[in-house]
Amino acid sequence: MELRPSTDLFRVTLLGTGAPPPVLDRFGPSTLVEVGGEKLLFDAGRGALQRLHQLGIPFGDITGIFLTHHHSDHVVGFADLWLTGWIGRPWGRRTVPLKIWGPDGTNQMAEHLPLAFATDIRVRSHSYNAEGVKLESTEIEEGVVFESGDIRVTAFEVDHGGEQLDAFGYRIDYRGRSAVLSGDTTFNENLIAHSQNVDLLVHEVTHGMGQGVERANLERIRRNHTIPEDAGVVFARTKPKLAVYTHLLLFGEATAGDLIPATRATYDGPLLVGKDVMQFDIGEEVRMNRFASSA
Known about the structure:
This protein is α/β, with parallel strands linked by helices and 295 residues long. It has helices at 48-55, 72-75, 78-84, 106-116, 118-124, 189-194, 215-223, 228-238, 259-263, and strands at residues 10-16, 30-35, 38-42, 64-66, 98-102, 135-139, 143-148, 151-157, 168-174, 177-181, 200-207, 242-250, 271-273, 278-282, 286-288.
């Protein structure tokens, strides 16, 4: 069944499926949700702007950006999207303020980034629409944070382990269809509660363990994320039409190819390991489209 174009489109694109390591095949965490004529970006990791350009989406078309938390790998691409998206070229041309939703610290980021780039903003304001470089931020709590027509975005608290910062996942609902983005979290009952019978569940994952002097640090990181066996329990209890891994944190000898076999200890349903620029159209079924092998 083909989705009707534009207003009926509900498409989730994994712009970046990586983590802090600066590798070329997995850019930083970022997910684009095209739904009901809106283009919503969740997190803005390294290379998000390049992936949007790869998809042919002008940066000025982004409705707003939703942050799961303020770890640098999730926001380091934000300034690039904000400023380059303002430039008056076909891939930019934003003429309205860029809206941001996120946890505590989002207002501070929106206040101080323009100070850091004050010289650039002053010079370019002579050439481009001054409204397009403004930032409008909203700090969120659990609950509905965005509504437009039939679109509803709900934020829910997750547990980023021992990290001392607020962290959220998001659920996007549209005309009886739904997608959940876990954000960074350990095994989490609140995520399970918000993901029941979701069409698409995009979940972070970590696997493997190194040796030697870094082992203690890796054990700390592992406690802040979800191992495949625990993610499998999440999937088994929520029953998504499709589960997809993103934000791959792999240590030691672990590879992406190990993730599905490890998950099968607790889950035997539909599951894919995400890749950059992998896209999913949510209709009667959840289908992966032609960009799946582009990156």
